[in-house]
Amino acid sequence: MTGDRNRGESSITVGPRWLWPIGWALLLLIGVLGIPALEPVFRWLEPDARQVIYARADFASLLARHVFVVGVAAVVTISVGVLAGIAVTRQWGRDFLPLAGQLASLGQTFPPVAVLALAVPVLGFGTLPIIVALMLYGLLPIVRNTLAGLQDVDASLKQAAFAMGMTPWQVLTRVELPLATPVILAGIRTSVTINIATAAIGATVGASNLGDPIIAGIVNGNMAYVLQGALLIALLALTVDSLFDALQQQLRTRLSAS
Amino acid sequence: MSQIDALPSPSSQYGHLNSVLICLSAAMLGASWLLGLVSVAPNRIVAGTSYGLVAAIGWPGALLVSLLFIAMGGLAIKPSRLHSYAQLCIVTLTLLLMPFGLMVAGHWLIDPTLPQARLGIGAAYWVVLFLLLLCLVEVRLRLGLSRLWTTLLLSSVGGAWLLCAALWLENLALVQEFQARDQQFYRAMLQHVVLVGIAVSVSIVVGLVLAMLMRRYQRLQRIAFAWLNFLQTIPSLALFGLLLAPLAWLAANVPVLAQLGVSGIGATPALMALIAYSLLPMVRNTYIALDEVDPETLDAAKAMGMRPYQRFWQVRFPLALPILLEGVRITAVQAIGLTAVAALIGAGGLGTFIFQGLGQAAMDMVLLGALPILVLALIVDASLGALADALRPGGHK
């Protein structure tokens, strides 16, 4: 949402920082629509295969499902993670702060694949376990960075805000959150990047997304499928990552300007 | 992480009730009564029937468990140092009792005439285990114990569990899965450790060289970081895939390379991708570590007449070592997880069990792969973290 707003404002002068995400997104679009046209190239790579273009589902719907899964997980994790981070830094939630901090840093030790594998016995196969696993895993970087961002806000600034007669709510929304936003945004970026990769592995537990062609290609020994899936996932990851990069730069210039 | 460790010690907060432990105790009580404790299946593919707390370990067992959790919550109403130690004892006792619960449940619920019958660990067990570990972290923070203590405590509990599993828990599905393929398991474990070891050691050497070159040539620094960031962004499965196709083509068309062991599937692409991923955290931390050494210390060394290589190896490097080890820790933990994905392209390792198990819908086999990976990551994380703490100038934090 903030992306759209920033985009709208900067569309008067599309700065060079927006060129990367636009470029990657264009390449992704070309890839999704143009791969079937590249059949001769893939035929050269895999001359003996019966089919060289993955055809069980078209790439656009695979991409849409990938984005959907990561998007749903991201919306939930961002709202829950930021709220949890705010809650444990308030006076009434402070009891939970040490535990939340430890948990968030410990969570980085859990390999995403193991989390995904452990989610399946409990939740079953399909899209739902993937979304749940992504939510659990993606929560931790966001909580960690929200905590770090809010705790880094200078205590004297908060005191000054209180002294000016601001209510706790105003201090949170007008002082703490704006100052913590760059750090929180970095956490969201980590979370989403990891989730795009983990969702691809989710193809092995029955979710149909861009990981599908890779898994099918490995199983059937068809390198053309592998290449198609890998290219599109890589382009998706680069698009999203460069989008966050541009957002962060935008934020930085705005913070330093104000 | 450091800002969380640097919080004012919570031990000063004695006096008002500890709502964290009360919440955790209530959650454990709820989970143990409401979720399935164990499941029993006639063989490895059929989904098991789930049994609750009373059905699995009887009324005496259920009462004992509930009493432990209630005592834990009760002690948190008026926190004191003594109460915290009592809570530590309760957590340890409950952890030690967990395999006995499985033994009792196995004894009662498994029909001895069915040799294939197996006991699965239910959701309640996992949830309670997770919450107990959270309690342990909370009590540790309250008492201000060092990380080493909990590591020792948990390793002895883990040892007790392994002993129970080896001696009395032959009904447990996880144990049966292991016994059916113990040689395979040890081989996969070894492969996993070797792959991670090679990737991490290569990236340490390359990382150090690259970081030193970067300090000399600023242009290289920008280019190298841009490339490494770019590589890190590409999802692991995609990078494995992107390496797979060209290597397979090379192996098929250049016989010399095929003889050298290059092939699309297997350890070669896996190692290449693992090293590529390991380089970014390694180089970044090494660069920061070498760069953050206090210039005044280096000036002092220079004034003492130390030569450049002496200044590097005797002053800069030892001072940089804790942050450098932090990089090794991050890299190793990340590589342990990524190696699991490498099983998809035939590199072997513990991930093999995960993906085979998922393919056969045999969940116990998935656990046989996922649990050791998790434990391995935690062990490496704890030991390298402790080493970095010990090497920090001035000893422990």
Rounded Rg of chain A? 21 Å
Biggest protein-protein interface? Answer: A-B, 54 and 58 residues
Tell me the β content of chain A: under 5%
CATH architecture of chain A: Orthogonal Bundle
Number of strands of chain B: 3
- Overall pLDDT level of chain A: 84
Please give the share of residues in helix of chain A.
over 70%
Q: List segments of chain B where confidence is low: pLDDT < 50 over at least 5 consecutive residues.
A: 1-13
CA radius of gyration of chain B is 25 Å
Structural class of chain A: mainly alpha
Strand arrangement across the biggest beta sheet of chain B: 2-1-3
Shape of chain B: flat
Reported by name, the CATH topology of chain A is MetI-like fold
Q: Please identify which CATH superfamily of the largest domain in chain B we are dealing with.
A: MetI-like
Annotated CATH topology of the largest domain in chain B: MetI-like fold
Q: Which assembly state applies to the chains in this document? A: heterodimer
Q: Give the CATH architecture of the largest domain in chain B.
A: Orthogonal Bundle
Largest sheet of chain A: none
Pfam family, one (chain B): BPD_transp_1
Keywords (chain B): Membrane, Transmembrane, Transmembrane helix, Transport
InterPro entries (chain B): ABC_transp_perm/SBD, MetI-like, MetI-like_sf
Main location (chain B): membrane
